Amino acid sequence: MKISTYPISKILLLFSFAFICSCDTGDDSRYAEFDYYDDSKIEAVETDRGFDISITEGDMLVFEYIFETEGREEVADDEFAQRLYFEIPAGVQEFELDSENFATASAYLGRTCFCGITGNYPVNAGSISGRKTSSNTFAVTIDIQVNFEDDFDTYQLQTSANLKRRN
Q1: How many domains is the chain built from?
Q2: Residue 20 in domain
Q3: What's the whole-model pTM score?
Q4: Within 13 A of 114's CA, how many CA atoms are on the CB side?
């Protein structure tokens, strides 16, 4: 039995080339928006892919966090978007949401991508806290977890931002 071997230098060269080619050198055009809406409410209609979410006229403060990326031009189908929605009673200056009151706050996280399960699903673990810092801004900290479709796919979102009044 004859075993062929490659010189170590050729193997190292191959791995070096693969590593250099995998480095992120392109701009993926990221976009983030942090808003809240006065006199609004969240309407959620269940579908076969989670929930369709719309922000309509109401008596709550509705918060919306949007993160999108167009992806890299040379990579097919790497676009990604996520949206977090939740509502609190109007007039609140400070809040803390957790698994005990996510349902009451209509907290939903959605994702759109070529990455398996997508759609808007209820937030089921973690916390969202916020404090009004000016007449049109809330400082919000998000550390949540969502199970997409029967606990098959778990997704976590952690971020902090200043959300500004949109309307």
Answers
A1: 1
A2: no
A3: 0.72
A4: 7
